[in-house]
Every structure is written in C-alpha cells, then in structure tokens.
Design brief:
Number of strands: 12
Number of helices: 4
Strand content: 35-45%
Structural class: alpha+beta
Distance between the termini: 70 Å
Largest sheet: 7 strands, mixed
Oligomer: single chain
Shape: elongated
Order of helices and strands: HEEEEEEEEEEEHHEH
C-alpha cells in the first residue's frame, strides 16, 4: 500500500519536473543616473562695459537637456566672497544663458552650476579675462577653494544621506567609548 501511495505522489512530481521550463524574463538593468555633460559656451576673453552672455549647453546621454537647473556663479579673482549667482534661462537645444557686464579689467571665474532632473550636479569652471588686466595686480585665486574641484564637479544632491549620518553618529559614539 505504501508503495502505491509513493508511486502516486512520485510519478506526477516527475512529470511536473519534466515539463517545458519557461525562461524567466531577465529583469531590466536599473537605470543609472548619468552625469550631465556641460559645455561652457562663454568666450574666455571679453570686453569691459559690454553685455555678454554667460552660456552653457547641457547634454545627458547624447540628448540635449531642456529641464536642467543652471546657475552661473561669477567672481573676480581673489574675491570669491563677492561673487554673484545668476539663473540661467533656457534658450533652446539645451543652451542656458544669463547676461552680465564686467565693469573693469580683471580675471574672473565662472562656475556653471548644473543640476539634472535626476538630481546629479556638475559644475565646470572657466576663467574669463575681461579687458586687458594688469596681471601684477590680479589677486591670486584661493587655492584652498580649488583643491576640492572633484567635490564640485560631480555631486549627487539627493537627500539620501541618512545612512551617512547614522554611520558618523555611530563612529562618534564608538570613539567616545574608547
């Protein structure tokens, strides 16, 4: 009797195991946010007392981006604390512009702060020479501010830093106990 019962259970189990196996569809790869490519279009040499366009083109994955947030930060060499932030307005084809006027000869710097719709931040920097500055009077750029260029070039500004906060709080707690 036990053999019959075992045969009744084993035969259907074997038949199920021999059936056509359907391949499970491969799950799509999760999309990795791409870093926006930012090409600064502003000339490196400009005239003083003339309105110039601060301009940058944003491309992501080979496509021109019309939904990024672009801000131009401009300051005179050695005077970073006196810099200005200007919102870039979308012209067309991923090109964002803001206008400014340089009032006197000097060396200026510009960051094109660019944040894509996915929250990835890229901020290329460009030097701009306005007029004919006396290079002996140009203040040196703050090297300390330039040493963290990697931090500024590609930053993810999403708010997923709770894990980092937990780790740093835990590390502080461990240091206090040792």
């Amino acid at each position: 009797m036990k053999k019959w019962l075992l045969a009744l259970v084993a035969v259907p189990a074997l038949l199920v195991g021999c059936g056509d196996k359907k391949e499970t569809a491969a799950l799509p790869e999760p999309e990795v946010a791409q870093i926006p490519e930012v090409e600064i279009l502003t000339p490196k040499e400009v005239a003083i007392n003339e309105t110039i366009d601060l301009a940058a083109q944003v491309v992501e994955g080979g496509k021109k981006v019309d939904d990024a947030v672009v801000q131009f930060e401009v300051w005179e060499s050695g005077k970073r604390d006196e810099g200005q932030m200007m919102d870039g307005k979308l012209e067309k084809d991923g090109v964002y512009k803001a206008t400014t006027t340089f009032k006197h000869d000097g060396i200026y710097y510009m960051y094109a702060h660019t944040t894509s719709a996915s929250g990835i931040h890229n901020m290329p920097k460009q030097q701009i020479t306005a007029g004919s500055p006396d290079m002996s009077k140009v203040l040196p750029e703050d090297e300390k501010a330039n040493n963290n260029s990697m931090d500024h070039n590609m930053m993810d500004h999403s708010n997923n830093n709770s894990e980092d906060t937990e780790h740093s709080d835990q590390e502080k707690s461990e240091k206090n106990h040792h």
